[in-house]
Amino acid sequence: MKNNREMLKEMSFKEKASYVWEYYKFHILVVIVAIVITLDIIMAPDIPSYGTNILALGQIFTIDERYDQYVASLKETQNANIEVFYGDWSNEDQYVMEHNMMFILRLQSQEADLFLLNPIKYEQLQVFEDDEAVFLALDTVPQLQGLLDNYSEDLLVKGIDPATGQSHVYGLLLLDDSMHSMTGLSIREPIILCINPYAKDLDHTIATVQYIL
Q: Most buried residue, 44, 110, 135, 151, by CB count within 10 Å?
């Protein structure tokens, strides 16, 4: 039986190209998408700076004009902006892959203060580095205590602080479509709201949480 090297030697250029594409098309597409997104961000005009940037990722639809009105209101009255990266992360296709890479680039450029994440992405990000929690412990914020008291225990997403070994609330679980009437966002899966502990203006981000909920 001929090995791959011998087979390639006997192939024409067209056959070789077809062979490489068949077996490596996913890797090639990943590289192409990464290059296109990176160039798009580098060449794009400066993005206006907001007190709080919200990144939403998951099966979250923006289905009518209420969303545009809501974003305009966020910008004008709260100095905040929201960016939605739709995708079904249980089935990572090319569309999801592209949005995931855009999301990561936003994180790397520190354009994220407040998150709305599906459970899959939350678990991926909930990694402890240098004995430090990735998300802010919401129950340590006095301004949020009243909000947390209104949530039932099963809607509080908890974890253990690796530095202290203590349990804290790191997220709020949004289960239904209750945000749709006000925001124009249609949420089709559980979404976890959590805060970047290094938000550029933590007080502003906390005020934004109180506004959107």
A: 135
